[in-house]
């Protein structure tokens, strides 16, 4: 049995295991994926057809991308960006949810571990999967459902035969910056468990999402303390957007008009050119020019085009391409985080860059406007930090579970560098309610959890006979005023006036926020007494495990 961490990415994914040797040496190691000749799995999916038993077969990885060039109607990528919806994704006239397709990526990763640990027999001891800190409730819950589906599909029968509960294998989700921060602490720490006190920024810019997190870490009495000072980000900002802007630039420069092409030809063209553009973008990290060469890109038309680093940077600052200033967006999010947390850039002792897009030179130059070069830390295989940290967190959670079972003691701890890990989290998004006037905030983003907020409201109107208040439920919202999502409803029933006018009917709403859920309490007194007319409570999950 192995302790597994998975980084489920928009563009690339990876899987690691936590190992503790008899000598006491502890480390997270990433599984190599032979079919990719890499430690990364390309998060691309191709529907390969249905076998004689009616089983749907998928190809996951770089081969899926290659096949997608010829059959774009069977191909999908960047599924992670769709995890906030339950909309169907159609592949060759068959419909799948983002949960279904994400589960296929997770299964492919687990199969890489199985091939090493014991084909046909292996069952992981525990699995943790990472998510952006800036994910909202629907994205977290859908990701958890994808993990559970993958684990049941792969290990359900094996677990049942051995008398194991397959649902115990999935331990939890962990925010990507927390995972990267844990890996960072393991790398900079000493063998005796001591870790330098740090205030560090995780700048995580991946293929589809952008996460910013400020941490303070220290070790006191053999306890590693992670205090999350604040978070910011954008779940729709990453390398995929940069590729799209670069594509628009190339189309404009080459004078390519696709309006007369069929949908299939358009999809085939976009698939073909997007792979080459991604390669050019990656090359421009280390060189000043990259050659885009695509024979018969559309019809008989060849593309032979030189892209300079300056061209690409203009696509990022809004001068060319889709004219969106992505660098300005990144800078704005960083400014907001420093202001919200009241942390000066000079007080940040280390900056950890994770996610492939964070390696783009102009983005490093942006960070140098805030932090001296020596504080931007380089660690081995930095883009695997999130994956490695996830398996370390899985080891920690298994130790915690054993402690709960055994009265607080664990004989052979899996993660024994510290006696405990304490993580003080904040709300990644504001929480509020929906009123006649729109979104009303209860708890602001970056509020430390657990936290409680109480507010008094009054009904907007009464029934025609004056006996009841016109309100039947309270809708709970997560996010900011222009980008909130509905995460639950509290049904409260009839509120009787008992002869009172609406100004004298206080509706007391209490939010009790934890890192994984929020409890909403609604209390309305009966007349002028303390006796309740309405007293309801509902717990709404913000994440799922």
Quickly list its features.
single chain; 545 residues; alpha+beta; Nucleotidyltransferase, domain 5; Substrate Binding Domain Of DNAk, Chain A, domain 1; six-stranded mixed beta sheet; 10 helices
Task: Please characterize this protein's 3D structure.
The protein is of the alpha+beta class and 545 residues long. Among the domains are: 3-187 and 379-424, ATPase, nucleotide binding domain (Nucleotidyltransferase, domain 5); 431-541, Substrate Binding Domain Of DNAk, Chain A, domain 1. The protein has helices spanning 62-70, 98-117, 137-161, 176-188, 239-254, 263-283, 309-316, 326-341, 361-368, 385-405, and strands at residues 3-7, 12-20, 26-30, 41-42, 44-50, 56-60, 75-77, 89-91, 94-96, 126-131, 170-175, 198-205, 210-220, 223-234, 289-298, 301-308, 350-354, 376-377, 420-424, 431-435, 438-443, 451-457, 468-469, 473-478, 485-491, 495-496, 507-513, 517-525, 532-541. Strands 1, 2, 3, 4, 10 and 11 form a six-stranded mixed β-sheet that branches. The radius of gyration is 26 Å and the shape is globular.
